[in-house]
# Entry
Amino acid sequence: MKRRLLVVLAILLGFALVAASCGDDSTDDAADDAGDSGTAGDGDSDGDSDGDSDGDDGTGDSGVDASDITAAFVYIGEPGDAGWTYAHDQGRQFAEAQTGATTVTVENIPEGSPEFDQAVRDFIADGADIIFTTSFGYMDAMEALAAEFPDVAFEHATGFKSNDTNFGNYFGRIYQARYLTGLAAGAASPTGDIGYVAAFPIPEVIRGINAFTLGVRDANPDATVTVNWTSTWFDPAVEGDTANALLEGGADVIAMHQDSTAAGEAAEAAGARWVSYNSDMSAFAPTAYLASAVWDWGPYYTSVIEQVAAGTYAGGSYWGGMEDGIVQLGSLADDVSEETRATIQDLTDQMIAGTWDPFTGPINDQDGNEVIADGEVPDDGALLGMDYFVEGVVGSAAG
Amino acid sequence: MILALTFTEASVIGLLVAGVQFGTLLYLAALGETVAEKSGVLNLGVEGMMATGASVGFIVAVETGSPWAGILAGAAAGALLSLVHAVAAVGLGADQVVSGLALTFLGLGLADFVGDGYTDDARRSLFRDVELPGLDGIPWIGEIVFRHSPVTYGAVLSGIVVWFVLNRTAVGLGLRAAGETAATADAAGHSVLRLRFAAVMVGGAFAGASGAYLTTYLVGSWSQNLTAGRGWIAVALVIFGAWRPGRVALGALLFGFTLALKSRLAVFGIEFSPILLDMTPYLLTVVVLVVISIRARNKPSPAPAAIGIPYRREER
# Structure
């Protein structure tokens, strides 16, 4: 009997060890991510740091200094993935450097899990003034917590729920940057066969494929974009092989949506080109790399922290575009022509000025029926619910 | 709908080549699990050992610049980790299912812990494909069968060695006896505990090598959740292959092809749910289980009879 008890104890200990290593709840210092190397992007944004700060937690009071604010971030993945969470973490570091606020993070919190609720409550107990969370599935839990803690600001990326006091959602028009990458891809494809390693058939992904394809066809009217679904957000083995399938089929440029760099490495091995997403991943496939659609969450995080400090924060929805810099075109490969660069610059200026959008009609769906009339721009509701492919996309929007 | 990308010879060859590559990944892990189960120890920790092998394998491969060192280190890490299961389930007689599940989570956690600083590492240390001279020139077959990484050839060789040891040597006989009727093996002079310990560690080494194959060839990089449940497919594969190294190899190819086919549905213009395709290895395994249990009425089950039963000499 005693022996059994011992075994059970040993196993429990094992679980505790795992829990400890998974949910590491770390306050960030400059030293935190030391030793990370090889990634693209500017490593040291958090030069200044935690000298003062950490006063009381009277959120909502007006006129607090931003350096007295504590902002907590709940991540779905880990910053090292070079993808979605990496981009958010870069934004966090930027905001911390800008405002002097204290930031705390927790990684790998599953959607709809008790861990999520606990992590947020722990942050609040420790004096967090703002909770940023970065995955769609946290939405309902955020709504409930926002109602329970009216003095804390809740900001939820990619969702659609909000109130006008302490709960907001935020996202960016990454499709605008995707359109620009499409221009580069269309120009770089002699065969006109372009492959897209797509994640899940949801409006966010479909919108990105459509915007990319519109860019491709504006640069190369006969080109087509073949969509190959992976049903993954992160599974490098599948994403790399899915890219291989497109390359074997004759694609000479690969675009993708997932968090891994596997599609790019497949393109590199095959001597093809690659359009990356989330962050400039050129270090992973330097020859294949062509362009990227990237996030820059830093200015937004800075602005929210400042609003909370000033007592002006009031929830609501935010869907910013190129004009706010929240979405951007990453670096362009050296061999992108002057002509393409000029077109990209011109349309970037127009998007920043708000005079043009990639989804300006006339636009046909993949069966050739007009879905957006000449000169018309769909409203945000239509964009957010997009469930069809535009002309030039090969594949099914149903997955 | 017209497909822009044509259904080319390259696509078909690509499907078969990728099938062999995925099959190698599954086969290594499943072969090791076959050895462990043949000795009477079910080890559900394959996914965890694979993850640890992947993480350790990546680190050693990029730090030394040698994928060979990486895969050996991955195998060593898997074998060491499997000791946890061996001590708990074989030494102390703990419930094999519980201990194996714990090992899965322990291994996944350990992999993340060890590999923490290597997640966004752009360095690569990869096996190259080796073309078997003379044979790789055969049209189609050459490209599909004789142009692979050394790991694939190693997996084939390992399968033959495991089959030989299990079926043609005294150690193999003892090991199989330990998995059928442990008391008989003991009476015949075999140390059941020692055999089972060794079998579990062999299983761990193969699972670790399989994980390291991911980071030194198939994917090339290390990241969390890299194994993505492939260790569980390997566990199912052992049942599918009826605990026989040869049949497990055929199953590995079949499951490997379903993985490769999933990546190519759109290119081939096949309208089939990728999610359903992901389920097929498990569905096929359930079918095999049903067939086994129906046949068990007049034919002995291929499952090792003593699987899951701890052996304690004093209870003899």
About this structure: Residues 9-38 of chain B form the longest helix (30 residues).
